[in-house]
Amino acid sequence: MDDAAEYQKLRRNMKVAQGSSEGHPGSNDAISSVIYSAEGEELTINCEAESESSGQRDQWSRGVEFLFSCIALSVGLGNVWRFPFIALENGGGAFLIPYVIVLLLIGRPVYYLEVIIGQFSSRGCIRAFDMAPIMRGIAYGQVYSTALATTYYACIMALTIRYLVASFSEVLPWTYCLVEWGKSCVATGATAANDSSIVHGVSSAELFFTQAVLREPESLDDNGLGTPSWDLVLCLLATWVIIGTILSKGIRSSGKASYFLALFPYVIMVVLLIRAVTLPGAWQGIVYFLKPQWSQLLNPHVWYAAITQMFFSLAICFGTLVMYASFNDFNKNVHKDVIIITTIDSLTSILAGCIIFGILGNLAFETNTKDISQVVKGGAGLAFISYPEAIAKFKYLPQLFAVLFFFMLLVLGIGSNIGMASAVVNVVKDRFTHLPHWLLAVGASIIGFLCGLVYMTPGGQFVLNLVDFYGCTFIALVLAIAELLAVGWIYGVKRVCSDIEFMLNVKTSFYWRICWAIVAPGLMFLVLVYMLFSYEPLTYRGVQYPPVYYMAGWIIWGLGVLQLPFWALVTIYQQPGKTFGSKFRMAMQPTANWGPLQTQKFEAYILHRKREADFKSPRGGYLFDNIFG
Question: Residue 208 above 60 pLDDT?
Fold first, then answer.
């Protein structure tokens, strides 16, 4: 008997249970039937799945667009400035060893898991948690964190546009000193003549960034944040116009843009690499970047840094990968894509490090500085102080290399921001399907622009640093652990592997199973514990925040993490059971319509689940069976 005939016979012989679930807020208004297998497992068939499944979800025009979009999302600003600086302060070449290990044990397995979930369900990150409704708050928290990251990421893009425009000047504005900067200013231009009596000077590149661009105060105690700078506001507006334009036509327009956003930065990187390695002193900088300090391998902070860098470099556990994969063809073999993307991301980080430290090596050579770490500014300072300072030392065509560098940063940032903004927009679209996509894109851009104005104030970098830590790093780590527990133990690694076999017709190796169930959540939990035990009040440039800002930071964190218990209670309340225990058990089970979105695939999936329930018996205890069953 073929699958279709068996399914029709199965439906004729089932008693349709409408009863108490009809019209109940937790039932999705679906008529469902329940089968109890020989091992007592409850299998639910949604007899009206066709009505929901008949709605077509957008798909990539070509499968390769998913690959390029994920590359554009994952390869971003963190690769260009965060990775080189993190590697430098954590042992140079020795940092690469924990980094590669973390890639294999956390980064790649979690990336593959999220892509599988999105492709299998054809749902955005919120509805993907129909697999474990009680944990749906994870997705809401991730969307909240992603929205926060989108706003401050656009702020960095605005600064990039500001520098890009300045790079077209006849004389680069960060190469000379202004009178108002005082006598301690040291001009960084290649032909600049400075007062040799200045012992502890400040480079004109640093003063240009802090005084001319940011107008940054020493602290927030006296004048607060201040008012937005009009030139930065215009740059922020330009950023959101670009993002809104690409988002306006949905996944197809962003898919087309991904070809450029993913590939073009590498063209510039190759040009910059060739230029970097031909500079005097460049190889000393590259060796400094890659030279191992083996004693650092025993430092737990190095492993903490490797995990957090991998976490944010690949953009895992933010909801964006689930969203992108939901537009894939159901049977697309994504295993190769995941290997390619994660490998390219890591190699790009190393490539960017060689470029950056080759140029910084030249800067150390030109300034007669033996310790290269003394010419490095971390974070945004690496992109907007150290690198412009190094470009200023170029004797030939410094404007050209400034334009290339900042245009590369802009393209990298736009590619990542498109992915994050798309995740937020598609969550709203999945809930309000009648709204046109262009309207949602415009609305998100306007809201993002208005929220971003706070970063355009003189104290904006203080706020950015606060939101980055409390609203992204801290929230994302907690929710990532919860996500892995939800998928690996509530839904179950065993069932994930069964879904993969149904979708791709491949068996899942023990490597993936063990990483999903034990290694990845275990290592992330250790990182969280280390983070809590080593926690110190957040500072910016060594300056502490006023108490009210710390309070605001914890409120931002609380709003994200408390999504988990809030939606868990809501989901339990919505279940049709009569006791709390029965409601709780139902909230732990996948919803009635969980499975492939397409009708025929869904029917075949129900038969697949029934066969497994009839013919597969548990092996050992739950722990063993969940991983190896």
Answer: yes
